[in-house]
Amino acid sequence: MMPMVELNNLSVTYKTKQRHVTAVDRVSLTIDERDSIGIVGESGSGKSTLAMAILRLLPEQAAEVTGEVQFNGTDLLSLNESELARLRWTELAVVFQKSMSALSPVHRIGVQMSDIYRMHETKVSKREARSRMVALLHMVNLPERVYDLYPHELSGGMMQRVAIALSLMHQPKLLILDEATTALDVVTQGQILDEMLELERKLGITRIMITHDMSVVASACNKVAVMYAGRIVETGLVKQVLTHPLHPYTQGLLRSIPSFTGEKENVRGIPGSIPDLALLPTGCIFASRCDHAVELCRQVNPDETLFQQGHRVACHLVGGELAHAH
Ligand SMILES: Nc1ncnc2c1ncn2[C@@H]1O[C@H](COP(=O)(O)OP(=O)(O)OP(=O)(O)O)[C@@H](O)[C@H]1O
Ligand code: NI
């Protein structure tokens, strides 16, 4: 299978006068066509920064980006603004938790959708645009009347459906969702995810899905990458990583979800918090919170080790020379 996205040693450092914060640290990752990869990790681990770097949405002065983002053979980091503009919406699209706050409160939803549509499809008449937008609304299970509503007249679930409809407008190949369904109730979230999966199958979309919810990954992704303090500590097929998590951080994340252990008494978070990203330790970034850490972990940053079927882990205690002490 041809990889669609290849991240090679991608790093992002936010630079202010006082501090340099490395929010993404030498991330390498391959995403194949039609993959749906969940990016998980606690707040502040760099998930959104990673997405923004891929989409080239970071402020150029404040955020230094190094490495490569190969997308179908083109390094997105080397494109100029007009080359990028051609890819946005048509090849790459994104839905944020609050995408709709970008819409004007004083214009009807449909008119704004049509305007955005006609920016790329300049030859389309207003009438044609309307019927195309109504078809899009139907695609995300919204009735035609939504076209004539104002943003404040929509519920949260309707908002996110409109945002998803907007992102699918030009049939992008890669869709990035950043906590796009997080704020919704469980039932609405489940419905939207089901609709997404069906649309993806129809349209052949590849998806990167940022979430802090492992159950969303379990139900809506085939691959997962676990981020901790800017690094990917474990990645692989969902069916493998969620059933046989190898990194102590992934194990901790899964332990904190009742439905994965089935034992309510065992539920606990991971004590401690993410280290200051301006002062990264020399050893493993997780060492200070890891129950199993040994001296080597505090001194040497572990390389990624490959297990089977692309299951990779960055931990000295897994598969490496110290594996038996684990
Ligand atoms: N514009 C910015 N300037 C400086 N630091 C930033 C900026 N944006 C994010 N950061 C820092 O980068 C780190 C990663 O943030 P990011 O938003 O990517 O994490 P996240 O995993 O998406 O978190 P969350 O789950 O809370 O959305 C954090 O330490 C954050 O404070
Ligand atoms: Ni985020």
Automatic annotation (TrEMBL):
SMART domains (UniProt xref): AAA
> Domain ABC transporter: where?
5-254
Domain of life, per UniProt, equals Bacteria
Q: Name one cellular component (GO) term.
A: plasma membrane
> Its catalytic activity?
Ni(2+)(out) + ATP + H2O = Ni(2+)(in) + ADP + phosphate + H(+)
Q: Give the keywords, sorted.
A: ATP-binding, Cell membrane, Ion transport, Membrane, Nickel, Nickel transport, Nucleotide-binding, Translocase, Transport
UniProt-listed InterPro entries: AAA+_ATPase, ABC_Ni/Peptide_Import, ABC_transporter-like_ATP-bd, ABC_transporter-like_CS, Oligopep_ABC_C, P-loop_NTPase
Q: What is its EC number?
A: 7.2.2.11
The record's subcellular locations are: Cell membrane
Q: Name one GO biological process term.
A: peptide transport
GO molecular-function terms, A-Z: ABC-type nickel transporter activity; ATP binding; ATP hydrolysis activity
Topology in the lipid bilayer is annotated as: Peripheral membrane protein
Tell me the subunit arrangement: The complex is composed of two ATP-binding proteins (NikD and NikE), two transmembrane proteins (NikB and NikC) and a solute-binding protein (NikA).
Protein family according to the UniProt entry: Belongs to the ABC transporter superfamily.
Task: Supply the name of the protein.
Answer: Nickel import system ATP-binding protein NikD
